Task: structure prediction
Amino acid sequence: MTEARNETGTGTTDGPSAGTTGGPAGATGSPSAGAYEVVVVGGGAAGLSAALVLGRARRRTLVVDEGGPRNAPAAHLQGYLTRDGMPPAEFLAAGRREVEGYGVEIVRGRVTEVVNGGAGEFEVTVGASGQTVHARRLIVTTGLADEMPAVPGVAERFGRDVLHCPYCHGWEVRDLAFGVLATTPMSVHQALMVGQWSKDVTLFLHTVAEDELSDEDLRRLAAAGVAVVPGEVAGLVVAEDRLTGVRLADGTTHERSVLFVAPRPVPRTGLLERLGAELRETPFGSYPVTDPTGLTSVPGVWAAGNAAGFAEQVVNAASGGYRAAATLNGELLFADLDAAIARGQG
Ligand SMILES: Cc1cc2nc3c(=O)[nH]c(=O)nc-3n(C[C@H](O)[C@H](O)[C@H](O)COP(=O)(O)OP(=O)(O)OC[C@H]3O[C@@H](n4cnc5c(N)ncnc54)[C@H](O)[C@@H]3O)c2cc1C
Result:
């Protein structure tokens, strides 16, 4: 096995990746010839964390990453101890340097297909060129896509002053005038939650009818001091590239500096589905059924991060990747020992 450890974690390696990768932000590169022990699909927090564990465990590992992390629209990553406030791209670039320091290859590209040959033989197709590589185990960390509500201007301002997650952004916009765009009755929960960060909250009912709110919803909204405005939202009012208001279809406008929305999460589970992984329906999309380590119902295939669950923030995604990789490493070790014993070499 090639060892290409770089103690500083900041330089290039002389391992299988040398001259080929540059990581997702750089040249596209292509995987080396030959088989890998593990292919990690996706190079966000979950995938890179898994790869760090695998590289340090001297597993021949390839990360294939398309380069579109979920939090790309945000200027800063919040709530990750010691990394609070770091730009997401900087966080991932540091992660790639650390991972490559242990000889892991990272290539930019999309895994378009995976074929399970059984008995730990996966054929992975990378990129439009259709290059294939082989792996004994897979970790799928492809994340999810946020499908934005169809209100003009909302998608363009997402991550700036159109926000979805108070834990990600609430502190930075505290005490401003908040709007919440209701798209389901569950938006009441969001309106109540964001009240933790500002006492000036208006819930725009938009596509939700007033009679869809329960008495309990109405009592809680009143107790929290949340104003409720019926009527469809037609657009945003923006001045000097800042949100200043919300415009209703009847032409009235409401001054607001921040609008919270609930994008529809679309987990990127296509590869897992085609591998036959069992999925479970949730109100936030369907995710693979896994054991606590992220092992899916397909032997040899783990999932972590937002591809495995809606609620995973960056720190949880990294943790899930770590757990999956450490479990996989042990499983592979014992599989090889048992195979050697069975062949009479033990
Ligand atoms: C606007 C916004 C702000 C946020 N702010 C915060 C915050 O401040 N703090 C926080 O903790 N969380 C934040 N989050 C949540 C955070 O983005 C996720 O928790 C985190 O990105 C999950 O990491 P992941 O590795 O599972 O997925 P991702 O980071 O989304 O990475 C998945 C990677 O896989 C790649 N990929 C997908 N399909 C393929 C394929 N077939 N082949 C190859 N590669 C593929 C993608 O391009 C992507 O690079 C925010 C989210 C949004 C939308």
